[in-house]
Records
---
Amino acid sequence: MSRRDRRSSSFASAAAVFTLFSVSAAWAQTPGPLNAITDVPGIEVGNFPLPSSDPTSPPPITGTTVVVSRAGAVGGVSQRGGAPGTRETDLLRPENLVEKVNAVVLSGGSAYGLAAADGVMLCLEAQGVGFPVGGGHVVPIVPSAILFDPGRCAAFSVRPNASFGEAACQAAKGGPVQQGNVGAGAGARSGGSKGGLGTASTVLTAGASNGIIVGAIVAVNSSGRTFDTAGNFYAGFLELGNEFPLAGPTGTDVVPPSNLLQNTTIAVVATNAKLTKAQATKVAQMADDGLARAIKPSHGVGDGDTIFVMATGTDTRDATNLVSTIGSTAADTLSRAVVHAILAATGDCRVKSYCEQFPQNCPK
Amino acid sequence: MSRRDRRSSSFASAAAVFTLFSVSAAWAQTPGPLNAITDVPGIEVGNFPLPSSDPTSPPPITGTTVVVSRAGAVGGVSQRGGAPGTRETDLLRPENLVEKVNAVVLSGGSAYGLAAADGVMLCLEAQGVGFPVGGGHVVPIVPSAILFDPGRCAAFSVRPNASFGEAACQAAKGGPVQQGNVGAGAGARSGGSKGGLGTASTVLTAGASNGIIVGAIVAVNSSGRTFDTAGNFYAGFLELGNEFPLAGPTGTDVVPPSNLLQNTTIAVVATNAKLTKAQATKVAQMADDGLARAIKPSHGVGDGDTIFVMATGTDTRDATNLVSTIGSTAADTLSRAVVHAILAATGDCRVKSYCEQFPQNCPK
């Protein structure tokens, strides 16, 4: 099987057509310089905890990821999984007052982990970042979603609280984003293998969409799988620029999925496009298709899958006619971020990582 | 103007028809023994802070109210105000997994006050109350909404945090419920007057609905008013059993509404009926009409009005054919709770209470 074939699955023939179209003038695209959500100007990422620099220390077992836009980004959300844990999603509905979010928090800890957003709010308030409410005061707008990971490799009581959010917010910055067993992905699992945190970006380089940047970050903690029994990623066909180090045929020693009711994949998509709240909502809905293509099944009863959108609008052109292009790009970028998450993960106390199962596909 | 007339407003003629209908066999209703949400068996209320027993102490200026169902109650929500601050409302959608909520938290503090739910979760976890997730562990299901009150009678930084939720949860019990400047109503204002916390209940006593109990609790913090310039409550016509001590004509020295963008009225309706999640959602939607009848305007851009429903199901009969009756009763009960809130409130550092403006209607 050729290297290209290994990236194929049931989506293969559709992918071939798509590839022809995607290299036409209207859709030329490349990963951004970091291939990370931080390729979108003004978007910062903070994770807590990060892996210890001491290689003998055990990896983090739960954590928090925050995506910050200090200037505020127009927000949207798609909440389609069956067991969500969320806060501040109602305000994102297009008819509601607040337009811009200052940060989105993704966290482990099941619903307990919603506390992480408290720490992010206090961190941003201290920096004067938030919705102005008079008297120089602000209320930071910080939507949040959680995933289920408690009790996997530590006591059930070990889970993110407000201090995790505070630490992640303090660590937020532009630049490269660490992936794998990091932040909200630290305790994640995916279809019987190790899940994790992944990111990706796409720069559109032709036609009316030239200059639009879309980034995604995702904590993959899915009941469904991201690759078939031969190790082919369902979203492998969406690779841009040889970003997946997939080598060749491997074995079929794949761990079966376990608990189907304690999962949830949560993500943020960011773009420099100038979107209304309604358009950001539509982009979130289209981005959700990126989970469908990368994870099978997805959006199940025990998956609280939730996708946030942050549109910074630093590209000030009217994007009305680009919403479908941005949404489609968001879906593909999110799919690729899922693959990055699985490739970057290392095994935990009980489940193997993809790279432990298919070491040929994970060159050192 | 007669005592009855004083309760009339633009709804008066509709009310007359309704009254004729409501005393017919199908709709006979009375307040419960406490005229409080705690008339619903299994429903407990906790407030923090309560007014000091020292009358020279200033009243509380912000706080948290929790409504607890230790056995779990089927949940629903209606979120129609334009500036909401919420958590765990997505899980209440009928198609999502979790059926029952263990508590609902109402809190001051704007979005910062969402932290109160963290304390309620830890309090309930310590009591073993929550959604079972294996290994004897639970995740308490605690939806929450907040209202805007920071900076009114104290520094902007004075607002509920997790400790408020913990204290309110520890204080939760059945029995009488204190109203006025209490819990989530402590810092509330309403259309230029003092707002507050109010509660009411209705027992249906005839026909198929005999034995159904509906209770409501509400923190009234509305841009809109609850009474006209002569002191007539818009919802006065919904009085049950001479519960409003309205005496006679008074002056028109009414304070005009102030800030229209920093408000929010939040409420919980509870019933002993056995409802599905979809039915509880419908009851929440109908209950929201109770705000429309009691507060004018309501559901504005700066009102994050949010109504939760908790259906305990201790009345185990199939309630399918009673949903509209329960919803209508919920609306009326909520309207009456709004009047109770305004009548029980005392003035704060800057705005007068209803009873300071219309002392004739507030006998000692």
---
Amino acid sequence: MSLPAAPTTHDVLDAVGAVVTSTVAPAAAEIDRTGAYPRADVDALAGAGALGLLSAPEVGGAGGSLADVAGVLETIARADASTAMVVLMHYAATSVIEPHGPEDVRREIAAGRHLSTLAFSERGSRSHFWAPVSTATAVDGGVRLDAAKSWVTSAGEADSYVWSSRPVEADGPMTLWLVPAGTAGIAVAGTFDGFGLRGNASTPMSADGAVVPSSARLADDGAGLDVALGTALPTFLVGNAAVSLGLMEALVDEAAGHVTTTRLEHLGQTLAEQPATQRTFAALRTRVDATRAFLTDTLTALGSGRPDATLRVLQVKAVCAEAAADVADGVMRLCGGAAFRKELGIERRYRDALAARVMAPTTDALHDFVGRATLGLPLFGGA
Amino acid sequence: MSLPAAPTTHDVLDAVGAVVTSTVAPAAAEIDRTGAYPRADVDALAGAGALGLLSAPEVGGAGGSLADVAGVLETIARADASTAMVVLMHYAATSVIEPHGPEDVRREIAAGRHLSTLAFSERGSRSHFWAPVSTATAVDGGVRLDAAKSWVTSAGEADSYVWSSRPVEADGPMTLWLVPAGTAGIAVAGTFDGFGLRGNASTPMSADGAVVPSSARLADDGAGLDVALGTALPTFLVGNAAVSLGLMEALVDEAAGHVTTTRLEHLGQTLAEQPATQRTFAALRTRVDATRAFLTDTLTALGSGRPDATLRVLQVKAVCAEAAADVADGVMRLCGGAAFRKELGIERRYRDALAARVMAPTTDALHDFVGRATLGLPLFGGA
Amino acid sequence: MSLPAAPTTHDVLDAVGAVVTSTVAPAAAEIDRTGAYPRADVDALAGAGALGLLSAPEVGGAGGSLADVAGVLETIARADASTAMVVLMHYAATSVIEPHGPEDVRREIAAGRHLSTLAFSERGSRSHFWAPVSTATAVDGGVRLDAAKSWVTSAGEADSYVWSSRPVEADGPMTLWLVPAGTAGIAVAGTFDGFGLRGNASTPMSADGAVVPSSARLADDGAGLDVALGTALPTFLVGNAAVSLGLMEALVDEAAGHVTTTRLEHLGQTLAEQPATQRTFAALRTRVDATRAFLTDTLTALGSGRPDATLRVLQVKAVCAEAAADVADGVMRLCGGAAFRKELGIERRYRDALAARVMAPTTDALHDFVGRATLGLPLFGGA
Amino acid sequence: MSLPAAPTTHDVLDAVGAVVTSTVAPAAAEIDRTGAYPRADVDALAGAGALGLLSAPEVGGAGGSLADVAGVLETIARADASTAMVVLMHYAATSVIEPHGPEDVRREIAAGRHLSTLAFSERGSRSHFWAPVSTATAVDGGVRLDAAKSWVTSAGEADSYVWSSRPVEADGPMTLWLVPAGTAGIAVAGTFDGFGLRGNASTPMSADGAVVPSSARLADDGAGLDVALGTALPTFLVGNAAVSLGLMEALVDEAAGHVTTTRLEHLGQTLAEQPATQRTFAALRTRVDATRAFLTDTLTALGSGRPDATLRVLQVKAVCAEAAADVADGVMRLCGGAAFRKELGIERRYRDALAARVMAPTTDALHDFVGRATLGLPLFGGA
């Protein structure tokens, strides 16, 4: 399947679907087992136009919306959430690079030849990404970055990093930089051997006297948090919600397959014919449907500029992450011992599904924002 | 405020809003206290065109959709869920009478001069309304009904009852009748002194040798369950969901008002300024928003004839009822001792909110249906 | 049944059981309906020796332990939690009066002729009873008290109040006073019309220039919080837990009675014969048994001076209160529409059961204490 | 550390503690990583007298009680739940072999030279172990066994299997056999690559024309279920509860260590100093304490022959398994991204903790039994 020269978002979504079937799905279990980075998946998705989805047509991209982002990510996540997370972080980075980055990088992204990612969370402030403690210092020839980043998706694999630090001299909490892979002084600092999302190279990274040119700055010194909140954050939150939804759909599909095909020989019936199974399954299926309705509503609000769009964006990741954790737990329980074995793919998705609620901003942090917003208080009022 | 001669659904919704403010809201606490039937509310709502909302324009009605029903019921329920339940049962009855009932009754309903309701649940089969044990027997001059109905909203207050029984002679589980108020042998059998929804006269009724003419039959003998499932049930489920949503909105509004206006003097801050309050409030507010998204999605599915519309209808009451119970409990907890007193109106809504999950079809019964439907099994396969 | 001259705790427990059967249980529904104070219950329980249970034998009391307190309160609470709460607050007050109060009052309490209670919570600091904002000022002839107490059980009914205020001149957060009923300037400030525990006269009280003699002080000026934490709090927490347990036992008993005696005629079986009912009931029954085990363990720890006794005491009210709320909700759901009507007594206990978790110290406040204690932090470190 | 010739249960518990520290704990992470059988752990525990704990003194055992079993298993499970599960299944088997097995095997078990296990669950009847579909047929020279066992702990590693089948000719649901390792026709049928408890070799086993002597029968033909319910089941349920408790203790310890030592640099405080962390931690710590109280109560009931002892035994595994799942989930959430990495040991215990609720009898199955027992219905009345 080859893409047209100027692919529409429809073309991309179709091509992604094909790549997921041919490439992503078959590799998922092994990527989970070994924790290897899904390089072949990323290459195939690049070929399907996925990396340029959010890029503007003027640089050769598909000019997609967050609804398109959600569609692509859900499709990938149904097969492999690790790969979906790699693409999601690329979209979050792209949403900063598009308005603030250099045209050559934008063109490379649009053409599927450049993978980017975010480097936000830090050892010192942990999941409070809005309060970096790492530094940027003006030096001869540019700006020196020093940092201990705690989790960077595609660490050592991406072509660039959208990197947060304290400002050089401005007031304000944060400045953003576009740090190219290979910058001296930037290093992957460890490996990732985790519970879930094992294939996205989410390792710590360090910057130790890394120097970037002043032109690497994305937006004004000190303006980084506004940019992050205005572009990267909505993209991340909506995309993360879509990944959770894809995982849930896959989990409930696996559960349906299991209970309709497994028989209790001594009773002469399938598990699905047991009333308690039906009732439990219904609650899980309904939870997924209700979660999808909320993501749909969020995308509708964004698409039509509804006044509550920003609130929905702040809510949607938590709604989907909590639902994914609950549904995954319910499916594990419903499928019992069978789900405990790796054959069904349920336990892998379960482990992947628990990642969303601890990824920054966590559910608690989002609730803090939503609570202050809906009670008429300033957004960054608490600890 | 007076309605035009041929009111549109918009006119009705506006007029209902005005009546709720002027009449329904001020009376709600007292209706709850005494358990009196909200006769003045019903009369005022009739004057606002609410009773004819679902009636066809050809008999003088507004020709409203289930989306209109949901809008009207949510508006009423924000002020008084008891009154909303009375109107809901009238809509459920109307949805049967419109296609199967006599034109004179339809015209009276459209004109706001006739209130109807359902008489389904029975002592013998309890919440399993699809399995009546009451009887209809052919006698000279018509059909004799004998029954012990367990819960009839507007019992002794409505102008007619859409009444279920076993068939006269057909196979099939149920036949429906339009029983006029005042039919000899029909009696209210007890009073209702309940936990919540105290003002809707939900008492038992008995039929002891009550004779109705054969023409009182709604649809064919034995076809009652199909009619109930095809018309009354969707109306009831969607409308009940809207009542739950109205209650939730009112509860969260009350909570916001309480925490933003109540001060902890020794700490010099309002309750809303406490981080734990913000977090808890956010979770409640988000739950309401997510629940609304599901009702919206259900109405969209119905409006556009989406293939999943029937499934959504089977899900929506349970989604909203469970959310209402959880949100009400969370608001009670958040507002602590203050919510325990009657002044805030929180404890009344809490009691009202718990009704939905036990009203037939209960959450469990709906999950049974949804589970069988989504696992590819026959709908009435279990106990 | 008449008590011996020097009743043992056994005698008291037996006599209380008899009074509960003869007097408390028959009156419970009506007390709930009207919100009347259970004066006849209190008198009968006084006659059974209940008021002197905690009093030392040297003043004529039964010298009971907290285990005895728990036994008496659970027994009363199974029949009427409002009455149990009145007795509980008397015990909490007695535990302060016994070591710090005048002998004449102690003798009156032991003899069953004096009912006391706590007056701690205030409008200004709400459930944070450890931070009173009310004042005590040295004046000619004694000490002047000014306060707006928010919830006082047995307000206007008790013979004395163990009353908190800020110290007269000492450092420290609190001083305690024994304020006799009838003190000029002390008044009941409102009525209580609440969701649950409707019969314990839990109204606000005000002190407006009320003067008590200096001798009314219980323990040193400024030492009130230590006394409250050391005596009244453990008594209240353990006793409150016992009340929750009694409510749970009554609720589960009612549920068992309902499901084993109610038939589904169309299926020819009782509700108890339905597998889903059995499963749900088991979870409720088990929750009650597990909750009892924790109270038993707490009493064992107290009785044997185990090092974790203080921690258990800080935990036990929250464990029992949360369990009571959950079990009550589960019983309401299990018994469906029947529980919604007042006949079964389930909805009354449900309303009563929700009180415990909002009574100070609330579950959240207790968790704050327990969290700090078990993480090695100072007990009053947060907000 | 060497054991005395006739070790007391105290000697065993001490020796087990030492072995856990020296051998079990250091190996746990690697056993989880590779899924290897903990052979060195089992040998060391055998040397500590653990295998003979339940054996009667007359055959050289320590004559331990179920309380001793619980103590040993909790100690092992704090370090490695896989190893604890191996020992637990040995105890369950021993409890059948002691009253019904041959003396030579009993002596070998007591001496720590024979490891046994149960082979109950089957592919055909899945977790309904009380309904085997496998067969035992009288043949020349003994009895022929044919079976597809679905989960056997220590499969291929144990020295014998307590094996269930349908009876040879008696009525009744089950007959038990002691099948020696190495019996021709018995084979391990697959490997176990699972979510948790990865080191206990819980693989399927098959019997294909395996012949055992008639003397291999344990108790009468057809009496197997009574024996299983009377001996193996209580041992398994209590021991499984103890394993869950050990896991919970380890999880909460890890959480306390993490939050007290991890700093938020930008706020200048540890995670433990955050109020929300304290509150969450308290709820988890309290849940563990409450769960321990229930296990203690169960052991007290067993030890004193209390009438409710059998009920407690039927409840205790579910109480502890559900608590373990909840506490593990709460710890994962509390410790966020850090818990997601393998370094802390939290995610391993989390995976291990989820096993208990799906091991037969599952929580649902136990609730079915408890529900019927406490509602006065026959124990095996449902499906």
